[in-house]
Amino acid sequence: MYPFERYMFHLKRKVKNLSKVEGSIVAQSVNEEASQFAEYYFPSDVQTKSRRPARHDDRNERAMYPVVVPELFSQVGRVSGKRKKRKLSEEECSHLHKYIVTNCEAIAEYER
């Protein structure tokens, strides 16, 4: 889309009163501008549109496990999409085993 068309789409979405389109666009623009200006005066703990955390933000939380887990496997995050269960193929299992043996220091003491 061209910038003008995108801007017109943005303006048309603001229209609430179809009998007075220009006044409706002006009223919504003033409302939007005032709310953006006012959010700078809210305390920092108030979540606003511009202060919204990132979509995949884990907020520096560390995973808590009942047993000691090597650092390699203690990554914190959220999955995207719907969760699915599946079994690893023999080839994937072999690749995973080689990766763990070569990259995990906690496993090194059990190597022969």
Automatic annotation (TrEMBL):
It comes from the Eukaryota. Residues 1-56 form the DUF4218 domain. This is DUF4218 domain-containing protein. It comes from Cardamine amara subsp. amara. PANTHER family: DUF4218 DOMAIN-CONTAINING PROTEIN-RELATED, FK506-BINDING PROTEIN 4-LIKE ISOFORM X1. Pfam families: DUF4218.
